[in-house]
Amino acid sequence: MQGINDNGSGSVALLELALNLRKYSFNNAVRFSWWAAEEHGLVGSYQYVSKLSNLELSKIALYLNFDMIGSLNAGHFVYDPDCTNAEVPADCPHAGVAHIRDTFQTYYSVSAGIPTQTEDNYGLSDHQSFLDAGIPAGYLSTGTGKLITPAQALLYVFLRYFIASLNLFQVGNYRRRGL
Q: Which of 114, 132, 152, 171 could in theory staple to 108 by disulfide, Cβ–Cβ 3.0 to 4.6 A?
């Protein structure tokens, strides 16, 4: 199944986001990007960022990374760097990262009713290229290939199946079959 979640899921999400955003008008440009060779050292995103002038970099307000967001048996993770693995810890966290994290967590908890957890993932995906250039970045993931803990399984997987089973009993979704 490699490629479907990593990162077919993020690619499809970007396409859907682009289709939905065309209904709105913005004062600033919104760019959608797909990078090559992330697993080989973030080659595509580093190449892109390294070619930008200081003026072009200053025009980028933030970068949002949607990597591996389609796993069915995973959690909802939001990027929150503690920067313990950073080569230059003084550079971290970047301005704006906390605001992006808070916005994602508020949406999930308030609007969607979905619990989230934070994860560091420093340097593990294309958001790192932008962070290294001083651009605030946010990151969503449903898991990076590692097993979730029993507590996370209870929080995410059980909750998902519990909600799904409740939906069976909503009007119009359930018929009694001789019970």
A: 114
